[in-house]
Design a protein that fits this description.
- The chain has a single domain, classed as Arc Repressor Mutant, subunit A (Orthogonal Bundle).
- Helix content is 48%, strand content 4%.
- A hairpin with a 5-residue loop joins strand 1 and strand 2.
- The protein contains four helices and two strands; from the N terminus they run E-E-H-H-H-H.
- The protein has 99 residues and is mostly helical.
- The chain has a two-stranded antiparallel ribbon with strand order 1-2.
Length: 99
C-alpha cells in the first residue's frame, strides 16, 4: 500500500518567498490577525504543511473564516485580506464578474 497521500512536506514557501515550517508559523495563541499571518496560514494549508482541520483547530478558526481568507487571496491577492478594505475588494470582484 502506498503512503504518498500521507506524506507531509517539512516546509513550504510562504507568501513573501520565505520557508515556512510548523515552528515558524504564527503562534497558535494569535489574536491579532494581520495580513501576513493570515497569508502564512493559507500558504501552509495550500502547501500541505497543515490540513484544513489542523489549521482551524490550531488557530481556533471556523472553516468559513479560513475559506474566506483563501478566497480573498484568490480574488484580490494579499490586499484582499485587509479587513478595512474588504468591502472595496468584494465590490471590485463583483464588478469584474458581471462583465
Amino acid at each position: 500500500m502506498s503512503t504518498i497521500g500521507s506524506v507531509r512536506p517539512a516546509a513550504v514557501i510562504g507568501p513573501l518567498g520565505e520557508l515556512l515550517t510548523l515552528d515558524t508559523l504564527p503562534d497558535p495563541a494569535t489574536t491579532r490577525w494581520v495580513v501576513r499571518r493570515k497569508a502564512e496560514v493559507v500558504a501552509a494549508v495550500n502547501g500541505g504543511l497543515l490540513s484544513t482541520d489542523e489549521a482551524c483547530e490550531r488557530y481556533a478558526l471556523t472553516l468559513e473564516e479560513l475559506v474566506a481568507w483563501q478566497r480573498a487571496i484568490d480574488r484580490a491577492g494579499f490586499q484582499g485580506l485587509r479587513t478595512t478594505r474588504s468591502q472595496h475588494y468584494r465590490e471590485a470582484h463583483e464588478r469584474r464578474e458581471r462583465y
